[in-house]
Backbone:
C-alpha cells in the first residue's frame, strides 16, 4: 500500500515546516492556511480517519489532543483562543486519508463554519 502524504512527512520524505514532533505525533504548518495560524497535528500511526480509530488508539488520541493544545499555546494562541478541527470523510472535508487535527487561530473564527 502506498504511503499517504502525511506518512511521507512523518518519514521526512517530503519537507514540511515542522513546529513540534515526538515519538507519537508530528505538527506542521498547513501549506494552504485557512487562518493566520493553521497547523496540522498528525499521529505517526496511520489511522485513516477518526471513524476508523480503535480502542487500542485511545491513548494516542488523548496524546494527539493534548499536544494540539500544547502546540497552540506555544504558538501564542492560548490567551486569544483557537479552534481544533478533525474532519471525517468527504462530506466532513477530509482531503488526506490520515487522521489529523487542525489548529486554527490568529483571528476571530466564525460559527457555524462553512
Residues:
Amino acid at each position: 500500500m502506498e504511503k499517504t502524504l502525511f506518512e511521507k512527512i512523518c518519514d521526512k520524505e517530503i519537507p514540511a515546516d515542522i513546529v513540534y514532533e515526538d515519538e507519537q505525533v508530528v505538527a506542521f504548518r498547513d501549506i494552504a492556511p485557512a487562518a493566520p495560524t493553521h497547523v496540522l497535528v498528525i499521529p505517526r500511526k496511520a489511522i485513516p480517519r477518526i471513524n476508523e480509530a480503535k480502542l487500542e488508539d485511545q491513548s494516542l488520541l488523548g496524546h494527539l489532543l493534548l499536544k494540539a493544545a500544547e502546540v497552540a499555546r506555544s504558538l501564542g494562541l492560548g490567551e486569544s483562543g483557537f479552534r481544533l478541527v478533525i474532519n471525517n470523510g468527504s462530506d466532513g472535508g477530509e482531503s488526506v486519508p490520515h487522521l489529523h487535527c487542525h489548529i486554527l487561530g490568529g483571528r476571530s473564527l466564525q460559527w457555524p463554519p462553512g
The chain is about 20% helix and 20% strand.
